[in-house]
Amino acid sequence: MHMGRLFWKIFVGFWLTVILVSAATALWFTLQRLRPPQDIVIEEMAARTSMAVVRSAALALAVGGQDTLAQWQETLSPTQRRNFSVEAAGFDKVPVPALAASDAVALDRHEVLAPQASIRATAPDGRTYALKYRETVEGLPYSDDHGPPAQLVISCLLGSLAFAALLAWYVTSPIRRLSRAFDRLAAGDMSVRTAPSLGRRRDELADLSRDFDQMAERIQGLVDARERLLHNVSHELRSPLARLHVAVDLARLDPAKTETSLTRIEREAQRLNALVGELLTLSRIEHGSLRLDAHVDLAALCAAVVEDAGYEGSMSGKRIHMTTMPPAAPPPELMLGSPELLRRAIENVVRNALHVSPQGVPVEVLFTHDLAANAYTIMVSDRGPGVPPESLGAMFEPFVQAHDGKREGFGLGLAIAARAVAAHGGAMAAVNRAGGGLTVTIRLPMNR
């Protein structure tokens, strides 16, 4: 299996860290073993012994002078006599050398030297002497190897090697899966997902994998939407083009029907132009190429749309009523956006509601300012046939005809309206009303 650079960086970095920590621990362990705690106790006992020896020598000197001290010194062992010294002017009867370096080397490697004890004593003749003694005792035996056992060191290194490899694999494994998933996605496989292979893993790499899955789902949705759009556009273009061909053929076969055929050709050309215009509008909105920096009085814009729609609906016995609910505090009168896009979005929803509403039953438009949510809300309610519940989520997609196809056009109006609202930072939703009908809600932020 190919191991990437990140694997080796993690592996080598972690293993070096383990080695350095282990070396530092071994050094500390070695230094501690160079001076076992038992030697400290032995050293304290030797210091007390040294002090007892010099006090005994001082007593002998004080009682009998130099002769008595010399006799006392004869009772010492050769090692003790070597470690005992007297410093006094003219006192040459007793050798007084300090412990020389050669003597220190001559000590057994298991011996421990206590701190030197010193005391001043006065002989009967009035002379003062400095009596010094350093006790030498047997220490605990040391092993030749003061560090940790070699077998333990090797076991620790092998264990750290295995753990470093496992850690590096644990970190880089999801990255390699992500890399393979990106390759498959780039090759056109939109169904690739990485979350199922992570199990119950909960870390940053798992979050990255889930983000990849969301991205893949979004791309798959966009690709599917593009394919549906191409299919629907082709379908919508086929019918008017077929009628154009029929009108041209009729004009050629029967010159008397040329005027009728030209009228039909003009109508179909206008229909094609309208379709292309709506597609261009939809494309510009989706790509964010429209300017949304004009100041818009949304309440006045909504009232104007309702007034125009009411005037047109009155010719067919349709009515529309608008209610405005201002908050206690006046909201900002203007919002930034595109007046044309906002007008088109509101107008499409209102006209659709008028189209499906029965005569004599007014369409209700409720305009509210929600200061707590910092948003405008426009609710358009009709008493038409409503929309099948399974179609509510798809009615804002291109070429989807709501109300069982009772609406006119290409099915692009609500799609354009929804995307126009989304471009302003808002959202659209639709719910069926109790007792029949549909309520479409447009929600827009006061300040983007």
Automatic annotation (TrEMBL):
Keywords of this entry: ATP-binding, Cell membrane, Kinase, Membrane, Nucleotide-binding, Phosphoprotein, Transferase, Transmembrane, Transmembrane helix
Reaction equations catalysed: ATP + protein L-histidine = ADP + protein N-phospho-L-histidine
Alphabetized Gene3D superfamilies for the sequence: 1.10.287.130, 6.10.340.10, Histidine kinase-like ATPase, C-terminal domain
HAMP domain residues: 169-224
EC number: 2.7.13.3
Membrane-spanning ranges: 152-171
Pfam families: HAMP, HATPase_c, HisKA
RNA-binding keyword on record: no
First-listed, main subcellular location of the protein, grouped into a coarse class: membrane
Membrane topology: Multi-pass membrane protein
EC class: transferase
Domain Histidine kinase as annotated: residue spans: 232-448
GO CC annotation terms, alphabetical: plasma membrane
Subcellular location: Cell membrane
PANTHER family cross-referenced by the UniProt entry: SENSOR PROTEIN CREC, SENSOR PROTEIN RSTB
UniProt protein name: histidine kinase
Source organism phylogeny: Bacteria, Pseudomonadati, Pseudomonadota, Betaproteobacteria, Burkholderiales
